[in-house]
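Margin note: ligand = IPE.
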Amino acid sequence: MADKNIVPRHVAIIMDGNGRWAKLKGLPRSAGHREGALRVREITRFAAEQGVRFLTLFAFSTENWNRPKNEVNMLMRFLTQFLKGQSKELKKNNIRFLTIGEKHPLPDFVLQEIERVKEQTCDNTGLVLVLALNYGSRQEIIEACRKISASVSEGKLFLKQIDEKVFSKALFTDGIPDPDLLIRTSGEMRISNFLLWQLSYAELYFPKKYWPDFRQEDFKKAISVYAKRERRFGKVDVY
Ligand code: IPE
Ligand code: IPE
Ligand code: MG
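Resulting structure:
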């Protein structure tokens, strides 16, 4: 296990580049997503071994519904297969499974699997694996504003009580600490509507590799880059 002091408590990953990986190999995009799902298994196990406490993976964004219907269906199928195949391993490795994102637009067969795996792993005390599914940060923030406004108009909350803590609690990520490290694979350097509030002070890391090529040693490298970063949180260095 790596040094506890330098291992990020929460790593968030935008798993990007499945399609380009497949294209480069002359394969259909589905091959990229299939290979990508294998990396999810490996990286989850490895993150747990390294002592990471929370791992949030961006699996499907609110904007990904705009992809061709057959790709959306395929992603939903892969997701269900992944959950079916993973539940034993999650249990064995003491990993707790959670999701963030708007659940109701997801197909029933996906929702059933999500609920089953969540329930099966709810007592696990090791790594918390958070899958962002139908997740969009702007939508999350708007939803939080609605919840808070409702509490104010019902007289349960005073305007002056609204602070960062109250706001954080109204997000999907209630109870999950902010990410320390954000990794986005494939060389793209954008956030794509992921955890806009929560990433305020995360260290950002953009490896060039496509997600299906992102292996344990690449994750290890990300952690070692993180360990060398100086996080100041607006303060000055202590010499
Ligand atoms: C990431 O890979 C997986 C999802 C967004 C679900 P992409 O499918 O975005 O792959 P590229 O970016 O087209 O290469
Ligand atoms: C972000 O990747 C969403 C996921 C990884 C699930 P996209 O490939 O959808 O993002 P853009 O379109 O390149 O910004
Ligand atoms: Mg992409």
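The CA atoms of residues 36 and 212 lie 5 Å apart.
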